[in-house]
Amino acid sequence: MLLVIDIGNTNTNIGIYDKNDLIKVYGIASDHIKTSDEYGILISSLLLTSDIKTKINACIISSVVPTLGETIKKAVEEYINVEVYNLSYKSKLPVKILLDEPKEAGADRLANASAAAVLYKLPVIVIDIGTATTFDIIDKNANFIGGIIAPGPLIQAKSLSQFTSKLPKLKIEAPKNAIGRNTIDAMLSGIVMGHKKMVEGMVKLCEKELGEKATIVATGGFSKALFSNMECNIDYINKDLTLFGLKTVYEINKGEKI
Question: Of 108, 128, 136, 139, which residue is the catalytic one?
């Protein structure tokens, strides 16, 4: 079995693959204060609960937080006792990186691009809606040609609460109407519907530059909140896209399925 770990700024997603089947997914907070021992105990307890700790043969990690990536890598090596592979721009990928500075591409974005290139008809635009909202564009020749980075819904919500004295904190979910009849609904309209319109507009601009229609794939923690209950032009919502990308990259680089 393969342990796949995607470390984000806010949340860390942990998946277990048994060959092609994603059999377990866990979400934990990305806690920069926790030690490797604390993470080791936490991850061990999750795997023991599922009775699969001893069946894990290898691990691949993507991290946008380098120090936390090293902490969790050490935890897995010491407590799960398996080799850990770190995804980076130096990895063999099913896409060719055509960026000005390939090393600037986040590991999660490389995983998303890799998964999309394998799963969907090219060209593909992947929209990952998490702490930040990122667009990754893979052209018809499987080239990762670039993307877009914008503040995600959570950053927008926190900013409104932080910089305005009377606006409350809120849970990100799709509002029923564009016109909010109370403060919460008005904020949700601005954040969620406004974000959705930003996404739609940027997709049109990207397709114009590509010169053709693209397959549009949404992923990330807030993808369902934005798109599940609203009319949109998203072709697929794949919440496990990054985890599948990690599995794909591991198999390419290690030449084996686990």
Answer: 108
DSSP code per residue over 5-27: EEE-SSEEEEEEEETTEEEEEEE
Give the tens place of pLDDT for each residue, 111-155: 999 999 999 999 999 999 888 899 999 999 999 999 999 988 888
**What percentage of the chain carries pLDDT values higher than 70?**
94
Take residue 154 and report the two structure tokens written for it: 């959570």
Q: Could you confirm whether 108 is annotated as catalytic?
A: yes
pTM, to two decimals:
0.89
Residue 224's Cβ-side half-sphere holds a number of Cα atoms within 13 Å equal to 4
3-state secondary structure 23-58: EEEEEEECCCCCCHHHHHHHHHHHHHHCCCHHHCCE
